[in-house]
Design brief:
about 350 residues, mainly alpha, single chain
């Protein structure tokens, strides 16, 4: 019924009607997914909102997590609170450092700190250092400490391959009246050890190293050996100033002068322009044990010359120990009073 009227229309109208009819009756091939408007508060519990973004659209950097309760953070080095703390910090840093001359000097001045377990331990450990200057410094320091507990280690050092170490060990053992020291002195005199004993470094005598013998002889000659290796340093100083080593030797001898005026002279000498004199004066002040100069000595722990700085630090430790011991004795006396 519908076809007949359409056939009566012109062809263009018939085509338009058929096209319209086909479009109206065609089913869509895909259906859009139905959208549900679910309020935020009704979304599933396991849904998590997207992380916030900044104005540029990038995700913000991850913030560091706070430390857990009870978790310890690495301790930061503490600044020394007292001159004694500073003195130990200066010496331990040098004794364990990489610079050979600093290790030798710092170890050597430990001899100014007797009856101290920490100083003795550092010196004994230094006897095994790979540098002979440090080993010689340790051997000499232990003698100054009168460290009898180190005698077994010093006996081993008598056979050190370096002559300066063997002689330093012998000197320390002789100071503590240990007869094994005479083996080395016998070798110095005769060129070989006594029967049954090997030479230094198996077949090398002290006499085969003229340079070492000259250095050791020079050090003994001026009577000034505050730390290892100063012999050649003093020789260089003599070329420019013939009086510094002699004045330094005099300062060392004055350590035994009981005159109070000498304390003032040594305190002034600690500020001398020559580092040899400054170091010798500080060593003498340490051995005098006059704690009244402690504050002045503390100032020299900032000396630009390492040898002076380390000697000052050791002097501070020695004088502080004397002051603390004196305070303890005074307290005991006060406690004993009725």
């Amino acid at each position: 019924m519908v076809v007949m009227p359409i056939l009566g229309f012109p062809k263009i109208y018939a085509f338009a009607v058929i096209t319209w009819w086909l479009l109206c009756t065609q089913q869509p091939t895909t259906k859009a997914a139905p959208q549900t408007n679910v309020p935020v508060e009704q979304q599933p519990n396991n849904a998590s909102p997207p992380p916030p973004s900044n104005e540029s659209g990038q995700q913000p950097a991850t913030q560091p997590k706070p430390s857990k309760p009870g978790q310890q953070t690495p301790p930061t080095p503490k600044a020394p609170h007292t001159p004694k703390d500073k003195a130990w910090q200066v010496l331990v840093s040098a004794c364990t450092g990489d610079k050979t001359s600093d290790r030798a000097t710092a170890i050597r001045v430990l001899g100014l700190v007797p009856n101290d377990r920490k100083a003795t331990k550092l010196a004994i450990k230094a006897l095994k250092d790979d540098k002979p200057d440090v080993r010689a410094a340790a051997a000499a320091a232990l003698g100054d400490m009168n460290s009898r507990k180190s005698i077994p280690q010093l006996r081993i050092a008598l056979d050190d391959k370096d002559p300066s170490v063997a002689l330093a060990a012998a000197h320390s053992l002789e100071m503590m009246h240990d007869n094994s020291a005479y083996e080395v002195y016998y070798e110095v005199l005769n060129g070989e050890r006594k029967a049954g004993k090997g030479l230094i470094a198996t077949n090398t005598s002290l006499l085969s190293d003229p340079k070492k013998m000259a250095q050791l002889g020079f050090e003994e000659g001026i009577g000034f050996i505050p730390f290892a290796g100063i012999g050649w340093g003093a020789i260089k100083a003599i070329r420019k100033d013939d009086t510094s080593p002699i004045r330094a030797a005099a300062a060392k001898v004055l350590a035994k002068d009981p005159d109070p005026a000498t304390t003032k002279a040594l305190t002034d000498a600690a500020g001398d322009k020559s580092w040899l004199v400054r170091a010798a004066a500080l060593e003498a002040l340490a051995k005098r044990g006059d704690r009244s100069v402690l504050h002045t000595v503390e100032l020299h722990m900032s000396d630009e010359r390492a040898a002076v700085k380390y000697t000052a630090a050791a002097t501070v430790l020695r004088l502080t120990a004397i002051r603390e011991a004196g305070s303890a004795v005074n307290q005991m006396h006060r406690d004993s009073l009725p």
